[in-house]
Amino acid sequence: MSPARSLQQGTRYRAAIAATAVMTVSALAAGCSVANSNHSDAASPDTLRIVLPQEPPTLEPCDASLTSTGVVVRSNITEPLVERNADTGDLEPKLAESWEQTSGNVWTFRIRPGVTFSDGSVFDAADAAFSIDRAVNSTIGCDVDGYVFGDDPLVVAAVDPGTVTVTTPTADPILPLRISFVEMVPTTTDAQDKVREPIGTGPYRVDYWDHGQRLSLVRNDTYWGAMPEYARAIYQWRTEGSVRAAMVTNDEAELATYLGPEDGAGDLGVAYPNNETTALRMQANEPPLDDYRIREAIDYSVNRSGIVKALFQGLGDPAAQLVGSSIVGFDPDLQPTPYDPGRAAALVAEAKADGVPVDKEIRLIGRTGQFPKINETIEVIQNSLSEAGLNVKIEMMDTAGQMQYQIRPFPDAGPVLLMIQHGNQAGDAQFTVDQYMRSDGYQSYFGTETYDARIDAAEALVGDARQDAFAAVLADEPTELRQFAYIAHMNAVLAKSPSVRYEPNSATGDEMRLSEMTRADTDASS
Does the N-terminal or the C-terminal CB of the chain have fewer CB atoms within 10 Å? Predict the structure, then answer.
C-alpha cells in the first residue's frame, strides 16, 4: 500500500467512525421516546419480537459485514447478487441468476429480471454496478471495503440492463465470493455518505426506528421472491443476557440472541455453532508488547480449557487458530497453546532482566456485551497476566469506542491487548489473513514482508492446494508474528419461543433471516 493510499484509507475510516457517532447522536435527539411514541410492540401472531444485545450502530448496507448491523440488514432489507449457503458453503444465485469468469481478470454477472426495490423502482445492472462501486471504490469508509476487498480497486460496468462486469487488477479466483458481501442499493442512494435507513430489494423494509428504544421492519409487499410469513419484526436491545432470556420466557419476545448457558433460557435455549473465534490481539509496535517473549508469555497465560469449561459451560472449543472448522485453511491438527503460568512468568522475568519495561501499563480492552461472560473472561485473563508479572488494566467500551482500536488507523494510545471476536462469514481463510495478519491489514497491528508473500502465494491457488497453503500460513502465525493469543471457537445460545419455527445455523450471528422463520402452528409442508 502506498503512503498516500494508506493515509487516504486512514482518514476515511476515522471519518466513518466519527460520522456514525454524529449520526447516532443526531438521531437520538430527533428520535421518539417510548412516552411519546404511538408505536406498539404488543404480541401479535403476525409480528416477530427480537431482542439483541446491542442497538445496531448503523443500517448502512455497506457496513453489513459488521455483526450488529448485518443481523438486521442482510437478506432482510437488502440482498446481494450472490449468496453463500451457510450449511454447504456453496455460492447460490440471488439477484444475479448466473456468473462466469469471462477472461482472466473479468467476471460477468447476469442480473435477475423482474426485481424491484421497496420504493417501487426497478433493479438492474446499473444499480448493481453502482452498489459495488459505492462499497469498494468510494471514500465513505465502508466496512466491507476493508474486510473483503482491502486495497484492491475494481472496474465495474453495466454492459446492458441485464449484465454487469467486474474487472480486478489481477485474476481473482474468488471474486464471486467477495461480491456476495456487497448488498444492492438503488442508484438514488447517497454516493458520498452513509445512509440511515436504506432502500433494498429484500423481503422487509424499514418501518420506523426509535433510536435507543426499538427498530421495526415491515414486510415488503412488492418483494420479488416468496413472501415471508411474518408481517413485521420489532427489534429491541438489552445488554444483560439474563434479561434477554427472560423476555422470551415471559412472552415479551419471540427470539433473543447471544445468550450464555446460565442466562435462564431453559428449555427454550437452542445451542448452535456461531462461526466466531475469540482471541486477544496484541499491539506489537511499542514496549513491552514489541518483545516476542512478552507476547509468548501472554499466550501461555490464557487458560483456554478453563475458560471454556467454567465460563462458557462447555459451549465452545479451545482455539489454536483464528478460523473455525468450516473454513478453507482450517488445520485440524493444530493444538492450542498449553496453559503454562510458570513458563509465562519465566519469559517475563527474562525480558525484564534484558531491560524490557514489563511494568509499563498495558490496556486490556473489551466490548460490553461482546459475548456471554465477556467481563468474567477479561478478569480471568487479567489475573493470569498479573501473576506472570505484567501490569494490565481492564477497559470495557461500547461498540463505537472499541471500534477505534479494532480498525486502522489505530489510536496512538498503547500498548493495547484487544479482545476480538472474528467470524469468517465467507468460508475462506483469505478473508481472515488479509485483514488480521497482513502488515497493512484492516485489523492487523503488524506483519512482515515474508509473511505477506506467503499469503499472496496461497491466495493465487484453488482447491486442495489452496487449503494446504492457507493451513500452513495459519499454523506458522505464532512463530512468524504471534500477534494473537487464540482463546476459543464459540458456540451460541438463542432463546426461541415455542410459537416460532426457526433453525439457527453458523450464519445466524451475522445475518438472521426473517424469511426463514414461520409460526409453529403453520403446516411445515406448506
Answer: C
Residue 465, H or E segment:
helix 463-475
* Separation CA 13–CA 11 (nearest Å): 6
pLDDT band at 249, cuts 50/70/90? Answer: very high
pLDDT in tens, 174-212: 999 999 999 999 999 999 999 999 999 999 999 999 999
Give me the helices (H) in 276-315, please. Answer: 292-300, 304-306
Alpha-helical (H) ranges within 77-155 are 125-136, 143-144
Cα 264 to Cα 55, 246, 270, 307, distances in angstroms: 22, 7, 12, 20
- Tens-place pLDDT, residues 219-231: 999 999 999 999 9
> CA gyration radius for the chain?
23
Nearest to 485 by CA among 372, 404, 390, 409: 390
Distance CA 12, CA 139 (A): 6
- CA within 13 Å, CB half, 151: 18
Cβ proximity of 319 and 278 under 8 Å: yes
pTM greater than 0.85 (yes/no):
no
CA atoms of 269 and 263, how far apart (whole Å): 9
Measuring CA to CA, how many Å separate 474 from each of 263, 278, 454? Answer: 34, 15, 10
Residue corresponding to grid cell 471495503: 145
Distance from the first to the final alpha carbon of the chain: 54
Q: Give the type of residue at 426.
A: A
Secondary structure in 3-state letters for 487-523: EEEEEEEEEECCCEECCCCCCCCCCCCHHHCEECCCC
The pLDDT value recorded for residue 3 is 30
Q: For residue 105, which phi and psi values (nearest 5 degrees)? A: -125, 25
Average pLDDT of 58-70?
91
Quick check: 394 and 364 in contact, CB under 8 A? yes
d(CA 443, CA 151): 13
